[in-house]
Amino acid sequence: MSDYFFYICKMRQRDENKAELIKKKAVEMIVKQGLEGFGVNKLAKEAGLSVGTIYVYFKNKEAILTTLCNEVSANILASSLKGLSADMEFAEGIKLQWKNRYYFYKLYPEQVAFIEKVRYSDIYLSVTENLNKRYGTLLGAFINKAVQDGQLAKMPFEVYWALAFAPLYQLINFGMNNTTTSSKFQLTEAKLEFTLKQVLQGLKP
Q1: What 3-state class would DSSP assign to 184?
Q2: How many CB atoms lie within 10 A of CB 161?
Q3: Could you identify which of 49, 71, 150, 164 might form a hypothetical disulfide with 53, taking C-beta atoms 3.0 to 4.6 angstroms apart as the criterion?
Q4: Whole-prediction pTM value?
Q5: Closest alpha carbon to 65 in 33, 101, 4, 22
Q6: Helix (H, G, I), strand (E, B) or coil at 88
Q7: Residues 61, 38: contact at Cβ < 8 Å?
Q8: Structural contact between residues 69 and 111, judged by C-beta atoms closer than 8 angstroms
Q9: Buried-exposed string 173-199: b where 16+ CB fall within 10 A, e elsewhere
């Protein structure tokens, strides 16, 4: 798409309701079809808009994805860390984050499903780098205190995240799909509590 065409499109009157519709439909498409099935022409059709209207709000497909990754990731991270303080006991802080993340999933399952679809894309990785800078001080202080207090084994952040939160999101995936290979699966708070207890045991020095 040429810069000139984009400039002409931007001259059209903006309607923020249409901008929200475009983002909503984009999330729905990516959740259902993955990144491979996502494109501006298909998005315009799904939203009942012309392709030119899409370009009033977004320069290209990458701009749409960047906006969505920024907004959804920021929503999830802000919600996940709500109420967290650096001086919390480690188990209390992890339990709070699990609770926050679980209730965000309950309220906004489509946003969680969207992140799972884009998690390993280059755009998502670049967005999360910026978010980590924004929230890194709080998380770093929380983790460092836990290590110093002997409540958490010292490890690379990636290993910590995989051990502390990947089990939660795998349960959420099972809950969203409502099935495993062998049986129906219902995600409950009791199952979360049991899993979290095992996770905390595994994170100790």
Answers
A1: strand
A2: 12
A3: 49
A4: 0.80
A5: 22
A6: coil
A7: yes
A8: no
A9: ebbbeeeeeeeeeebeeeebeebbeeb
- Helices 16-33, 61-80: crossing angle, 10 deg rounding: 90
DSSP annotation of 84: -
Phi, psi of 184 (to 5 degrees): -65, 145
Q: Cβ-count burial of 50 within 10 angstroms (0-12 exposed, 13-18 middle, 19+ buried)? A: exposed
**Is 57 in contact with 14 (CB distance < 8 Å)?**
yes
The number of residues making up the chain comes to 205
Q: How far apart are CA 202 and CA 90, in angstroms?
A: 13
Beta bridge partners of 179: 184
Scanning the chain, the segments in alpha helix (DSSP H) are 3-10, 16-33, 40-47, 51-57, 61-80, 90-107, 109-118, 122-148, 157-164, 166-177, 189-203
